[in-house]
Write a structure and sequence with these properties.
The protein is built from 9 helices and 13 strands. With 334 residues, it is of the alpha/beta class. It has 2 domains: 251 residues, Vaccinia Virus protein VP39 (Rossmann fold, 3-Layer(aba) Sandwich), CATH 3.40.50; 66 residues, OB fold (Dihydrolipoamide Acetyltransferase, E2P) (Beta Barrel), CATH 2.40.50. Strands 1, 2, 3, 4, 5, 6, 7 and 8 form an 8-stranded mixed β-sheet that branches. Strands 9-10-11-13-12 form a 5-stranded mixed beta barrel. The longest helix is centred in the N-terminal third of the chain and has 18 residues.
């Protein structure tokens, strides 16, 4: 796709709206922002792709942990151009007869999302009808909607979440948005087990007293094309975006069951380690809360080198500690 100067100006306008939405102080929904079909095309080739890289990181983590959700009915709520549904299929696979429901307040967005999904998965049954108030999704996908919701939208969405068997909810990695997502996580604990990112299903540690400066966020890895193509180079230079940084926050939930598997890890670190000479400082989250801990390089030199790249599979750990100093650490898949 060839981008014009007008396209890049339009993307800059959209980005300003999205950034302003993160800190807006209102109970009303974000006003509509799609102007025409071209908006969907240029958004899908840029911002949606970055969201897709984050969503794929979440899906691959769930796959690594053996907790990838599946089912006959998948709902992509607030679908935009449908990148979440496409990334779900890329990792979980798509099956003939599987039904996808795409929902967005913009009818034009759902039509575009349906077209893009069927381009790669024509075997799917894809609906853009209004959601039934009694629909019970096997898998509910939600992506980058939290900053746009009004009170009524939020209420309707949480009712849908409570009717779902499994939920994968991905948001921006900003402090304000992440903490809002953590608050919703705690509201849903009565109905769900938290599959990820947490290693527990008790109250969120970043919302505890004394943790107001902290937030639960992680980093995805951009594909090689982000650093080799002229398209992404122009994107980064024109919009002033660092393609190496892909922060995101998320929650993955499963309806509570006596047979739900439990995680074998006892800790996870948040954000990026702060690497210093001879040691790394980690914000560690476990069932007891969030605390800063140190790992000396000599404790595990190979692992220490890997910590310098926080994106990827180094997420969950079993740790032994002496106070706030980690004396032994073992990466775990789940």
């Amino acid at each position: 796709m060839e981008f014009t100067r007008a396209d890049w100006r339009r993307l800059a306008e959209l980005r300003e709206r999205f950034l302003a939405a993160e800190v807006r102080d209102t109970n009303s929904p974000l006003p509509p922002y799609w102007a025409d079909e071209r908006d969907f095309e240029i958004y899908d080739a840029t911002f949606a792709q970055r969201i897709g890289w984050k969503f794929r990181a979440v899906m691959r983590e769930l796959q690594l942990r053996g907790r990838l959700p599946s089912g006959a009915l998948v709902v992509d709520w607030g679908c935009g151009t449908g990148i979440a549904a496409r990334e779900y299929c890329a990792v979980a696979g798509a099956q003939a007869g599987q039904r996808f429901v795409l929902f967005d307040r913009s009818r034009e967005a759902t039509d575009f999302a349906r077209m893009k999904l069927l381009e790669v998965h024509p075997e799917l049954e894809v609906s853009t009808d209004r959601l039934s108030p009694t629909i019970e999704p096997d898998v509910l996908l939600i992506s980058h909607v939290l900053d746009e919701l009004g009170d009524e939208d939020r209420h309707q969405l949480l009712n849908l979440v409570r009717r779902s068997r499994a939920v994968v909810w991905v948001e921006a990695g900003s402090r304000a948005t992440s903490r809002k997502l953590c608050q919703l996580r705690d509201e849903l604990l009565a109905h769900f087990d938290v599959v990820a990112p947490c290693t527990h299903s008790v109250k969120c540690g970043v919302l505890a007293a004394g943790q107001s400066a902290n937030w639960c966020h992680h980093f995805a890895r951009a594909p090689a094309e982000a650093f080799t193509s002229a398209h992404w180079r122009t994107f980064a230079d024109t919009l002033g975006i660092d393609l190496r940084s892909l922060p995101y926050s998320f929650i993955a939930l499963e309806r509570r069951s006596e047979n739900s598997p439990k995680t074998a890890a006892n800790a996870r670190f948040l954000g990026r380690p702060r690497m210093m000479k001879g040691r790394a400082m980690l914000d560690v989250c476990d069932e007891s809360g969030v605390r800063e801990m140190s790992l000396l390089q000599r404790t595990d030199r190979a692992l220490f080198r890997r910590l310098d790249d926080a994106a990827g599979e180094l997420l969950l750990f079993s740790i032994t500690a002496d106070g706030r100093r980690i004396t032994a650490i073992e990466p775990r898949a789940q």
